[in-house]
Structures are given as C-alpha cells and as structure tokens.
Amino acid sequence: MDRRRFIETAVGAAGLAVVGSCATLPPKHVGIPKATDRIALGKTGIKVSRVAMGTGTVGGPHESNQTRAGQENFTRVARRALDLGINFFDSADLYGTMPFFGKALQGVPRDNYVLLSKIRGQATAEQAQKDIERFLQELGVDHIDILLTHCATRADWAKTRAGVLETLAKAKEKGTIRAYGMSWHGMAPLETIADTPWGDLALGRINPKGINMDGKADEVVPHFKKIHEKGKFVLGMKILGEGKIRESADIDASLRFALGLGCVDAMTIGFEKPEQIDDMLKRWEAAAKEVAKA
Q: 126, 154, 285, 286: least buried by Cβ within 10 Å?
C-alpha cells in the first residue's frame, strides 16, 4: 500500500474500549527512576531524559514566556538543563523558540541533546516541507530528532492532514527528522490516537486537576493508557497546568499523579528560570520515591 493510502486509511474504526493498566514504575529492586535517566523512544534509536525543557508557556503566536524573557535568560535555562542531565528540548513554530535554541545550544555536540518541534496544523504538504527546511536553519542543525503535527482538533485529523503526514514520513526516510508524531487539543482527536498506527510519539495534556486539558482526568487517562499500550511514546505536557498549579503541595501531587499512571513516559515542563529546574528535579525524586512505595 502506498504511503498516502496508508495514511488515509490509518484512522480506521476507533475502538475506544479501555484496555489494561500500563506498567507502573520499575520494581523497587530496579531502583527509583530519575528525571535525567535516558529512556528509549520506541524503536527510533533516540534516548531522552524523562523530563524535557518546555518552551511554550503562554505560547503563541511565535512567542512564549520563555522568548519574552530574552535570549540571555533562555540560554541560561537551556544550559542549566544540560548541566543537570536533561537532554530533551521541546520547541514549536507556534512558540517562536527554535531560533532561541539555535543560539542557546550553539557549540554543544549534536549528540548531547534531543530536539522536538512542531509544524502548525493548518500547513499543506508543500508548506510543511518549507517549514522543515526553515526549522533546520533556525536551529542550526542538519536534522530534527522529533517533529510533530501540532494541535489536532478533529477526529479525522489523520485524513485531513494526510499531506503533512506524508511529508514527515518522507523526511524521516531522508534523515532530516528521526521520529514523528502528533499533539492534540480536544477529546475528539484523543479518542482516535491509539487506533491510528501513524506516529512514534504522542504529546498530550495531563494533570490531576483537569486544568488546560481536553477533559477531566478520569476521561483522559484511559486514552493515554491505550495509546501507550499500542506502542506510542507518551510525552505529557501541562503537568502543572501551564503554571496554574502553583502551591507546593499541588505541584508534588501532580508529579505523583503523572508518575503513578505508568503510561506517561516523559514530561515536558515549561521552565522559565534555571532555579526552577533544580527545584523540579528534587521534587521529581521525592515524588518517584513516594509512588514506588505505594
């Protein structure tokens, strides 16, 4: 079957029955997972830290809290992440953060970090190809590790975006990207992700309070579990509700919630200051220990 026909038929019948729980945190004798552990992104050969530096806090159009703070601060945050063992960096055209990463990571060996970016959802196949070429220039690299089609809002997203998905598949074959996937807004696309075979990674909003999410936690979690069981790498975002979860106890509870699900492989968190990374790694360690004991 040619690639376009595969993509157009990939939506399939969306069986929405909830399947069994995902694997939880490793047994105690294996050790407590660290935020800076390197974990495999499926069969792509990519290994990422369990925490990614997010850059889309209050993002769009082409700016975010991270870019509004300026290049100097952006570089300090990115370099602090690297110093502490985080190798995973989350960007998007919508946030305007790729040129910032291009400068912040200049001189760092390319194998030392993993870049994720996103193509705007309304792009055509031709626009997507031009976007990829521009992204490489803005980042100053010869390949992007992970590229997503951004903010799917419809159940038939794989059909309506078939041209973009085909462009991403060709880019992966060419080597300008190493993996691809999707992000979404709304329950309609979420309900189809697991039964759509296309994609290595799924980026979705998850926290216990349902803040800035597609639905309540108990509505969203079964789909996250099914996506994970179907073999996609699950990257959680809005773990702290885009900064709306501020109280110390609530931050810790959100981390325990996400870690305890067992189907959130990694988390992207929108750090705005270097010291926030130090604080988060300490909180992660404490939360992981609590979940492992439960």
A: 126
